[in-house]
Design brief:
Layout (H helix, E strand, L loop, with lengths): L2 H8 L13 H23 L7 H8 L3 H7 L3 H21 L7 H17 L13 H6 L2 H23 L9 H11 L4 H7 L5 H14 L3
Length: 216
C-alpha cells in the first residue's frame, strides 16, 4: 500500500470545525472596544500619549471610566493596543504592494498611505525618546512582533532600492527608515493644509517628492 494511502487510512476522520457565533453581548463588547481604540487613535494623533488621560477617553467614547477599565486595565495597555492596530494597518499596506514593483515605488506607496492617514487624523504621534509609553510598547509582545515585521519589510525595500541605484550608498539604512517614520508625523503637513492653497492629495505628493528627491 502506498505511504500516502497508509497515512490517510490510519488517520482519524477530521470533524469539521464548529464556528461559534459571537453572542449579542460579545458583539457589543467588541463594538465598544473598537470605538475606544478609534478615540484613542484620534487623541494620540492630536495630543500624543503623555497628554492623554483615561477620563478623556471615557468621556469621548461616552462610557463610564469603570467600563473603560473592563477593556483595558491601564493607559499603557490602551495605547499599546492602539499602536499595534496601527502597525496592522501598515502591514496590510506593505502586503498590498506588487512583488514585481520597484522597491522605491513600494516605499513611496507606503509613505503616501502614512501621510494620508496623518492628514485624516489617523496617525498617532511617534513617542519621543522620553515618553513613558516607550517601555509599555517594548513590553507589549504583539506590538514588538508587528514592528519587527514592518522594519524587516521596509529594510528589505531600502536595501533593494540601494542596489538599484535609487538610494545613496553613503546613507545608512536606519537613517532612511527613521526618516520615513518621521515624515508620517511631520507637522509640515498641517502647516501646508492651513495655508488653504493645497488639497490633501497635493500635500501628500509634495511631501513624497521632497522626501525622495530633495529640493532640487
Amino acid at each position: 500500500m502506498p505511504i500516502r494511502s497508509l497515512i490517510k487510512a490510519s488517520s482519524p476522520a477530521v470533524k469539521p470545525a464548529v464556528v461559534k457565533r459571537p453572542s449579542f453581548r460579545e458583539k457589543q463588547f467588541q463594538a465598544r472596544e473598537d470605538a475606544i481604540l478609534s478615540v484613542v487613535n484620534r487623541i494620540l494623533s492630536t495630543k500624543g500619549y503623555d497628554l492623554m488621560t483615561m477620563d478623556e477617553v471615557a468621556a469621548e467614547v461616552g462610557i463610564a471610566k469603570p467600563s473603560l477599565y473592563k477593556h483595558f486595565d491601564s493607559k499603557e495597555m490602551l495605547a499599546a493596543t492602539a499602536m499595534t492596530r496601527l502597525l496592522d494597518r501598515a502591514l496590510l499596506q506593505i502586503k498590498a504592494q506588487a512583488v514585481e514593483q520597484p522597491a522605491l515605488d513600494s516605499l513611496k506607496a507606503v509613505l503616501r498611505w502614512a501621510l494620508t492617514a496623518h492628514l485624516e487624523g489617523n496617525m498617532p504621534l511617534l513617542p519621543s525618546t522620553r515618553s513613558t509609553i516607550r517601555q509599555a510598547l517594548v513590553n507589549h509582545a504583539p506590538y514588538v512582533e508587528r514592528l519587527i515585521q514592518l522594519t524587516d519589510a521596509i529594510g528589505q525595500w531600502i536595501q533593494q532600492a540601494r542596489k538599484e541605484g535609487q538610494i545613496c550608498k553613503s546613507v545608512p539604512d536606519e537613517l532612511v527608515m527613521f526618516t520615513l517614520f518621521a515624515r508620517a508625523c511631520d507637522p509640515t503637513l498641517q502647516f501646508l493644509r492651513e495655508t488653504g492653497q493645497y488639497t490633501n492629495a497635493q500635500i501628500v505628493e509634495l511631501m513624497v517628492q521632497v522626501c525622495f528627491e530633495g529640493f532640487t
